[in-house]
Design brief:
The protein is of the alpha/beta class. It is about 40% helix and about 20% strand.
Length: about 300
Amino acid sequence: MTQQERIFCIGAGGMLGACLVPYFESKGHRMLATDINVNEPWLEYCDVRAYHSMHYICSEFKPTAIFNLSALTDLEECETHAGDAIATNAGGSANCAALAIKHDIPYVYISTAGIFDGKQEYYDDWAKPNPLCVYGKSKYWGELIAQTAPKHIVLRCGWQTGGCAKDKKFIGKVMNQLKSGATELNVVTDKQGTPTYTKDFSMQIDKLVDTASYGVFNAVCKGSATRYDVALELVRLLGLQDKVKINVVPSSFFAEEYFAPRPASEKLLTKKLDARGLNVMRPWQECLAEYVAENPEYFKF
């Protein structure tokens, strides 16, 4: 985006927002960053499920784009609170789409590789979704609703990495164990995916909005991995390979804690971005190394 934009960024209080908001501000754009959990001084309160409140914000702020980062992402919580998951992940998308249509502005919706069933090894941009769990279903419905806005950009991310203390995903969980003194990690090899660095993902959003490239895109880092591969690389980058043992366990090892069904493979192919010359995503190993190097306080022991 070459000129200053006014971006209404909803659900910005999580790991993606922690990177995306300062990234777009560094480009000179005005960000109205909101969340239902006002956990930063730069956030304002907004519930993506509350259309009238969002309508009022838009009438005052007059955004030139809407970014919907809000989501209920905990798979187990989605299974036990399906109504909340659907209201947030699908209903929230409906509210954003309605406002994007009303104001004739781009709508960016963040989706997930979790909309696929994992029966294939890889999924390209045109693969037919078949979600296994409430989370995946609600996000897929959110995708379909987002596509009712003429200027929609739907991006499917993979295993998200970034956000330091806001990271509630795999890297964050591993770091919590290591900081608690763990010398052994139990990690699965029967789940495969494509890591997605929040910095590169933010740059990818910028590229698509800047070029008015509307549509549905897989947007993940180059290269695929198992959870074991990611843990092994992180431990190596931290110089702990001689101090931390990584045990290979099946997913059933965590069946009680993680009972929501998960696809065996969430590996995405970025064919559409590649074909259009729009892909700015780097290899996941390079991104993980940069993430560790640029955040020494978070990764120190």
